[in-house]
Automatic annotation (TrEMBL):
<dbReference type="InterPro" id="IPR020846">
    <property type="entry name" value="MFS_dom"/>
</dbReference>
<dbReference type="GO" id="GO:0005886">
    <property type="term" value="C:plasma membrane"/>
</dbReference>
<dbReference type="InterPro" id="IPR011701">
    <property type="entry name" value="MFS"/>
</dbReference>
<dbReference type="InterPro" id="IPR004638">
    <property type="entry name" value="EmrB-like"/>
</dbReference>
<dbReference type="InterPro" id="IPR036259">
    <property type="entry name" value="MFS_trans_sf"/>
</dbReference>
<feature type="transmembrane region" description="Helical">
    <location>
        <begin position="138"/>
        <end position="162"/>
    </location>
</feature>
<dbReference type="GO" id="GO:0022857">
    <property type="term" value="F:transmembrane transporter activity"/>
</dbReference>
<feature type="transmembrane region" description="Helical">
    <location>
        <begin position="226"/>
        <end position="246"/>
    </location>
</feature>
<keyword id="KW-0046">Antibiotic resistance</keyword>
<feature type="transmembrane region" description="Helical">
    <location>
        <begin position="200"/>
        <end position="220"/>
    </location>
</feature>
<keyword id="KW-1133">Transmembrane helix</keyword>
<feature type="transmembrane region" description="Helical">
    <location>
        <begin position="296"/>
        <end position="317"/>
    </location>
</feature>
<feature type="transmembrane region" description="Helical">
    <location>
        <begin position="168"/>
        <end position="188"/>
    </location>
</feature>
<feature type="transmembrane region" description="Helical">
    <location>
        <begin position="395"/>
        <end position="416"/>
    </location>
</feature>
<dbReference type="Pfam" id="PF07690">
    <property type="entry name" value="MFS_1"/>
</dbReference>
<feature type="transmembrane region" description="Helical">
    <location>
        <begin position="48"/>
        <end position="68"/>
    </location>
</feature>
<feature type="transmembrane region" description="Helical">
    <location>
        <begin position="359"/>
        <end position="383"/>
    </location>
</feature>
C-alpha cells in the first residue's frame, strides 16, 4: 500500500515533480495557438502548415495516450514518466531550433509521443505514491496547480512571442525538464502494477494514430482536390476499419469495445466529441482572429483568453457538486448552449475590436458554459463504468476529446472556405471566421441535444472524480485507476 504522506518532505517533492511534468504538456497545448501568426510569418508557412503545427502533436498524443498509461503500469511509472519528460524536452528543443515548417511539424509529432508518456504518468505517480488518506487532496493540488499553469499559459506564450520570440515557447520546456528529472529520480518512488501482464496493443495504437493522421491530412489538403488527397482519405477510412477489427479480436485491446455497452458511457463520449470539436476549432481560430483581424499583439491576445480559464479554476469544483445534486442531464444540456451563444457573440470581434465590449462578453459566456459542463461530463464518464475501469474510461474520454479537437482544426478552415494564405489577409480571414463560428455553435447544439436525449442520472453510490478543480480548456481531466 502506498504510504507517502502529503505533508512530508517526500510528498512535497513528489507533488512538485508531477506538477512540473504535467505543466510542460499543459503549457504547450495552450501557448502554441498564440504563437501561430509569428511562426507562419517567420517560417513562410501556409495555413495548412499552421494547422499541422497544432495537429501533428495532437495526432500522436491522442493515438498513444492509452498505450502510455499501460507502459507505465508494466515497466514502472516513474521510469516511463522520466522517459516522457526527457523525450518531450528533446522534441521541444528540436521545435525551438526548427529551420522550416516541415522540421517543426515533425518535431511536434515527436513531442506528442513524449506527451503520451508523461501525461498519464504524472497522475499515476500521485495515485501510486500517496497514502489513501492523502491521495484525494494530492490529486486536488495537482489539478489545481495544473489549472494555474493553464491560466498562465496564454499570457506567458504571448509575452514570449512578443519578447524573446516564438521559439522560446518550446525552448522553455528544456529547463523545466532539467529541474523535473533529477527530482523525480531522487525523490519519487518507483511503482508498477503487479497484475500487468506485459502484452501491449501496439498495433491498435499505431492503427489509431495512422487513421487520425491520414484523415487529418485529407481534410487539411482537401482544397487541393488531388489524387493524393483521395488516396489518403480512403487509406484513413481503411485504417479506421482495421483499428475496429483489431480491437474486437485482440485478447487485450487498447480500446475494449465492450466498454461501449454502457449506453451512458457512449452518450457522454458522443457529447464529448461535439463539445471538444467546437472548442478545438474555437481556440485555434480565435487566437488568429484577435491578432490577424483585430490587431492585437501576441501578448494581448494571450491575455485576452484568461477569463475563460479563470472561471474554470474558480468554479469547476462547485459546478461538479451542483451536478451531483441535480444530475448531469441539465448541465450537459445547458453548458453547450451557453458555449454556442458565446461563439455567436464572437461575431462581434472584427477589425479594431474593443476588448471590454466585444471580446470579454463572449469569453465570459464561454467560461460560464465550460464551468457548467466540464465537471459533470467527467463525473458522468466515471459513473457509467465499473470502478476497475475508471482509468480506462477517463483515458478514452480524454483521447476522444483530443481527436475531436484535431479533426476540427483540420476540417473547420475547409468548411469555412479559408484559403492557404487567409491568415495573411485580414479581410479574408475575418470573412471565414464569421462562417466558422456558427458552424462551431451548431456542433455544440447537436451535443446539447444528444445530452438531453441520452444522458440520465447515474446510479446511487457510483464513482466520483478525484480531479475537482480543472483549468484546461482543451481536454477533460484525466482520472486514474482506483
Amino acid at each position: 500500500m502506498p504510504d507517502v504522506r502529503l505533508a512530508s518532505p517526500r510528498g512535497k517533492w513528489i507533488l512538485l515533480t508531477t506538477v512540473l511534468g504535467s505543466s510542460m504538456a499543459l503549457l504547450d497545448s495552450t501557448v502554441v495557438n498564440v504563437a501561430l501568426p509569428r511562426i507562419g510569418r517567420d517560417l513562410g508557412a501556409s495555413l495548412a502548415a499552421l494547422q499541422w503545427t497544432v495537429n501533428a502533436y495532437m495526432v500522436t498524443l491522442a493515438g498513444l495516450i492509452l498505450l502510455g498509461g499501460s507502459l507505465g503500469d508494466h515497466y514502472g511509472r516513474r521510469k516511463i514518466f522520466v522517459v516522457g519528460v526527457v523525450w518531450f524536452a528533446a522534441a521541444s528543443l528540436l521545435c525551438g531550433l526548427a529551420p522550416n515548417s516541415a522540421v517543426l511539424i515533425a518535431s511536434r509529432a515527436l513531442q506528442g509521443i513524449g506527451g503520451a508518456l508523461l501525461t498519464p504518468g504524472s497522475l499515476a505517480l500521485i495515485q501510486a505514491s500517496f497514502h489513501p488518506d492523502d491521495r484525494s487532496r494530492a490529486v486536488g493540488l495537482w489539478s489545481g496547480f495544473g489549472g494555474i499553469g493553464a491560466a498562465v499559459g496564454p499570457f506567458l506564450g504571448g509575452w514570449l512571442v512578443t519578447g524573446p520570440g516564438w521559439r522560446w515557447v518550446f525552448l522553455l520546456n528544456v529547463p523545466l525538464a532539467l529541474l523535473c528529472v533529477p527530482v523525480a529520480l531522487r525523490h519519487v518512488p518507483e511503482s508498477r502494477d503487479s497484475t500487468e501482464h506485459g502484452r501491449f496493443d501496439v498495433l491498435g495504437a499505431v492503427l489509431g494514430a495512422l487513421a487520425l493522421a491520414l484523415l487529418t491530412y485529407a481534410l487539411i489538403e482537401a482544397r487541393a482536390g488531388s489524387a493524393v488527397v483521395a488516396v489518403s482519405a480512403a487509406a484513413g477510412l481503411a485504417a479506421t476499419v482495421a483499428f475496429g477489427y483489431v480491437e474486437r479480436h485482440r485478447p487485450d485491446p487498447m480500446l475494449p469495445p465492450d466498454v461501449f455497452a454502457s449506453r451512458q458511457f457512449t452518450a457522454v463520449n458522443l457529447v464529448t466529441l461535439c463539445v471538444y470539436a467546437a472548442f478545438g476549432g474555437f481556440f485555434f481560430l480565435t487566437a488568429l482572429q484577435l491578432q490577424v483581424v483585430a490587431g492585437y499583439s501576441p501578448l494581448a491576445a494571450g491575455t485576452a483568453m484568461l477569463p475563460t480559464t479563470a472561471l474554470m479554476l474558480l468554479f469547476s469544483a462547485r459546478s461538479g457538486a451542483l451536478a451531483d445534486r441535480t444530475g448531469p442531464r441539465l448541465p450537459l444540456t445547458a453548458g453547450p448552449l451557453l458555449c454556442a451563444a458565446a461563439m455567436l457573440l464572437m461575431l462581434r470581434v472584427g477589425p479594431h475590436a474593443d476588448y471590454l465590449t466585444d471580446v470579454l462578453p463572449a469569453l465570459l459566456v464561454m467560461g460560464a458554459g465550460m464551468v457548467t459542463l466540464v465537471a459533470p461530463l467527467t463525473a458522468t464518464v466515471l459513473a457509467s463504468v465499473d470502478t476497475a475501469r475508471a482509468g480506462l474510461a477517463s483515458g478514452i474520454n480524454n483521447a476522444a476529446a483530443r481527436a475531436a479537437g484535431l479533426i476540427a482544426v483540420a476540417a473547420l478552415p475547409l468548411l469555412a472556405g479559408m484559403g492557404p494564405e487567409a491568415y495573411r489577409l485580414p479581410s479574408a480571414f475575418d470573412a471565414a471566421f464569421r462562417r466558422a463560428m456558427p458552424i462551431c455553435a451548431g456542433v455544440l447544439v447537436v451535443g446539447s441535444a444528444l445530452a438531453f436525449a441520452l444522458v440520465r442520472r447515474p446510479r446511487p453510490g457510483c464513482l466520483r472524480p478525484e480531479c475537482r478543480t480543472h483549468g484546461s480548456v482543451t481536454v477533460p481531466p484525466l482520472e486514474g485507476q482506483r
